[in-house]
């Protein structure tokens, strides 16, 4: 009897979490098709019909878009060519980094929101001194000195064209924030979410096959203009790996009236200067569950259940009338 009840509660909880993931936890959000990419991929890229262009060694199969294969000295890119006209967005990227290397592999890939699409260069296959945002998924530790974090490492960098990305230091001096994330060579699906809303940049991962976003970092006062471009790039050198993009889902988020009417096109990318590394702390382990806590948890779950039921009713009801907005 009890176990059934608990199983039912867990089911409800997992449904709730799935809902959160699907909508990016933003009720006013909807997916932008021209900034998304999914299987089956367009049969022809780099034509006037396609929203996405491939550069360098990028290869498309029916299963993935391979920025680099697991061989030396490859450079690849995948660039969207429709500028992003809305100020607040969230992007979910399903990717896979894998290869035959057990100890030595690299270098990783980068996700861009940048002024100049379709260029190649030394920073994970894109140009140095770029304008915009880089989310760097670094799998190889170049920094030989005493290290304050392990790899793979996810970090963000904001650039107005003046900063150099220093590979030899893994970009430590220009990094805005970062976290360790064991996203390479996993059997589970690996996803990263980048949210930019009200000048707050949040990066989360879902790499453990739990279908839950785990926050990697969040930074406020990040200023990014509209009309930049989304892109992905990767490079291999002496070390190599497969760097695959499997799908991209981009959502326009609800925007305040003030931000909507502001001219955001000429903003110079800007963010609080790089902070010292935050010490890595593990999530607190669930210990010492008192009866009172369990009681409140059950009450909470019942409330969540009610809210999800009511929310789902309105959601699907509304969906009937607004089907055109969803893809
Ligand atoms: C560009 O960024 C650098 C370093 O963060 C800063 O010193 C400089 O003032 C910025 N330039 C502009 C035009 O904002
Ligand atoms: Ca590196």
Task: Describe the fold and architecture.
By secondary structure, the protein is of the alpha+beta class. The chain folds into two domains: 20-261, Jelly Rolls; 292-327. Helices cover 18% and strands 29% of the residues. It contains three helices and 15 strands. Helix 1 (2-23) crosses helix 3. The longest helix is centred in the last third of the chain and has 31 residues, at 291-321. The N and C termini lie far apart (42 Å). Calcium ion binds at residues 107, 138, 140-142, 170.
Which terms summarize this structure?
327 residues; alpha+beta; Jelly Rolls; eight-stranded antiparallel beta sheet; seven-stranded antiparallel beta sheet; 15 strands; 18% helix; globular; binds 2-acetamido-2-deoxy-beta-D-glucopyranose; binds calcium ion
CATH topology grouping of the largest domain: Jelly Rolls
Would you tell me the structural class of the helices and strands? alpha+beta
How many runs of DSSP E, i.e. beta strands? 15
H/E topology pattern: HEEEEEEEEEEEEEEEHH
Number of separate structural domains: 2
The residue fraction in helices comes out at 10-25%
CATH class wording of the largest domain: Mainly Beta
The count of helical stretches stands at 3
Uncertain parts: 11-23, 276-288
Shape assignment? globular
Please state roughly what percent of the residues sit in beta strands, choosing from under 5%, 5-15%, 15-25%, 25-35%, 35-45% or over 45%.
25-35%
Largest sheet: 8 strands, antiparallel
Ligand catalogue: 2-acetamido-2-deoxy-beta-D-glucopyranose, calcium ion
Membrane topology: Single-pass type I membrane protein; Single-pass membrane protein
GO molecular function: D-mannose binding; metal ion binding
Keywords: Disulfide bond, Glycoprotein, Golgi apparatus, Lectin, Membrane, Metal-binding, Signal, Transmembrane, Transmembrane helix
Domain L-type lectin-like: 29-253
